Amino acid sequence: MTGEVPADGVIVVGIDGSPASRQALRWACFQAEITNGSVLAISVNQEPGLLPGSEFVLRRRGAWRDDDAVRSALHRDVSMVPTSAPVRELVVTGEPADELLSAAGDADLLVLGTRGHRALSTIPLGGVATECIRRAVCPVVLVPASPAR
């Protein structure tokens, strides 16, 4: 059935607009091409919240953007990757790790970008990648922002 996303062979990739997430998207599309799979590119619009800063101030968490801005950025990132694999785009609102894990619940693979060539033990506890590694029910692939030299 031409134009339909296959029911199996789904690779979920988290996109946050960073160079690392764009590299993860390229990797996921390549993997989908060679395995005849499909890609679900997901961006999570994190709800604004307050984090404790000090006893005098509260800092805002994240940069709140409306869904249209997030959807536009996601579409721009997806359109920059030449691929023959089917790619669906999805924007959701919530906590990034929770939403990525929910989307990857029935997927074959979850792909995330990393911002450097750090060992897993140095990723800050509570980070999105760490939480996804801990709780994922499918394999997780971490793709560095730039290829190793």
Features:
single chain; 149 residues; alpha/beta; five-stranded parallel beta sheet; two-stranded antiparallel sheet; 4 helices; 7 strands; globular; disordered N terminus
Strand order of the largest sheet: 5-2-1-6-7
What integer value in Å does the Rg equal? 16 Å
Shape: globular
Structural class: alpha/beta
Quantity of strands, as a count? 7
Number of helices: 4
Largest sheet: 5 strands, parallel
Report the sheet-strand fraction. Answer: 25-35%
N-to-C SSE series? Answer: EHEEEHEHEHE
Unreliable sequence segments: 1-7
Distance between the termini: 41 Å
Tell me, rounded to a whole number, the average pLDDT: 82
Classify the oligomer: single chain
Q: Helicity range of the residues?
A: 25-40%
